[in-house]
Amino acid sequence: MCPGRVGNGAITATDQSGFWRDTDGRQLWPEHTRGTEGEIVSTPRPRNTSDRRNARIVVVQILYQDDLNPQHSPVWDEDLIKRRLRHPQLVAFAQSLLAGVRLHQTELDAKLAAVTENWSLSRMAITDRNVLRLGAYELLYSDTPPRVVIDEAVELAKLFGTQQSGQFVNGILDRLYRDIASHHGTSVESS
User: Fold this and answer.
1) Is residue 21 a part of any domain in this protein?
2) Alpha carbon separation from 95 to 20, 58, 85, 108, 124 (Å, rounded)
């Protein structure tokens, strides 16, 4: 690890990937990857799934706000995304998910209603409903593997709801995925 100084003089270091870390080892969110001499080397790419999960978390929070206050300012949405994510690729990912869910919400709600048994979307917890919308959008319109979409949605449901929320979301998205696969004549991988 290469020692360095940032801001108020707190000692930090970069690891082998060039990410700055604070004295406790937590990764900082630099604008750029820095070389051993502190020079800017390149703009870092998101490291892992948890970065994309953070983008999904922000999207669910905004969709929740949409349900509670449909007239809220879109400036608030953009500000929240940029403040919470910072990395340009994650910002773009979150903006894409949010725009897609909003654009296709009527279709997503209809598809979800078709696979839910004894539940209407209006009776669902707001967080569960919005996690389902996001998951349905990703199943229908993204290149993310269905297992990943469903797993991420389950984790979001458990984060914002209860353990039962995770099971509930898993069951509905699994049914939706199987329905989509049967209409497209593709095989269903076990999820």
Assistant:
1) yes
2) 26, 10, 11, 18, 25
- Cross-strand partners of 3: 13
User: What phi and psi, each to the nearest 5 degrees, are found at residue 188?
Assistant: -105, 120
In a domain, 8, yes or no: yes
pTM, to two decimals? 0.72
14-41: pLDDT as tens digits: 444 444 444 445 444 433 334 444 443 4
Asked if 101 contacts 59 with a C-beta cutoff of 8 angstroms, the reply is: yes
Q: What is the tally of structural domains in the chain?
A: 2
Domain presence at residue 79:
yes
Q: What are 56-98's pLDDT values in tens digits?
A: 999 999 999 999 998 888 899 999 999 999 899 999 999 999 9
82 and 172 assigned to the same domain = yes
Per the structure, the complete domain to which residue 10 belongs is given by 2-42
* Tokens describing residue 132: 């389902």
